[in-house]
Amino acid sequence: MTGDDAAQLEERAELLRALGHATRLQILGTLAGRELSVGDIEGETGIGQPGLSQQLAVLRKVDLVSTRRDGKQVIYSLEADRLREVARSLAGLAGIEQGERGESHAERLRRGGGAAVFAKVGQDRFSP
């Protein structure tokens, strides 16, 4: 294993450690599809300062959230591309091929992915 490989593995491990924490997952779920100030996140999650700030710092460090300033407030939002990257990486470890949109063969088939997708996945996987 090269030094670059080891560094990449450590980066992935750090990212998974960040995701492997109930409070941080709660924060990510709260931010899903919207931007919120620290005060709004605190109000919705019940996570008090300084714990909230500490958890947000961990999420920022691994690029799962981004920030912008609005006057004196710091506004947080999810880094959706980063989360899709994580999903693709985990799917790859599980041997699940995903398309550009981050969806599996099964998801593409459900939305009408066509006969070629169906042939790859196989009928037996979709029995009720």
TrEMBL record:
InterPro entries: ArsR-like_HTH (IPR011991), HTH_ArsR_DNA-bd_dom (IPR001845), Metal_resp_trans_reg (IPR051011), WH-like_DNA-bd_sf (IPR036388), WH_DNA-bd_sf (IPR036390). CDD domains: HTH_ARSR. Residues 4-98 form the HTH arsR-type domain. Keywords: DNA-binding, Transcription, Transcription regulation. One of its GO terms (molecular function) is DNA binding. The keyword DNA-binding applies. The keyword DNA-binding applies. PANTHER family: ARSENICAL RESISTANCE OPERON REPRESSOR ARSR-RELATED (PTHR43132), HTH-TYPE TRANSCRIPTIONAL REGULATOR KMTR (PTHR43132:SF8). This is DNA-binding transcriptional ArsR family regulator. It comes from Novosphingobium marinum.
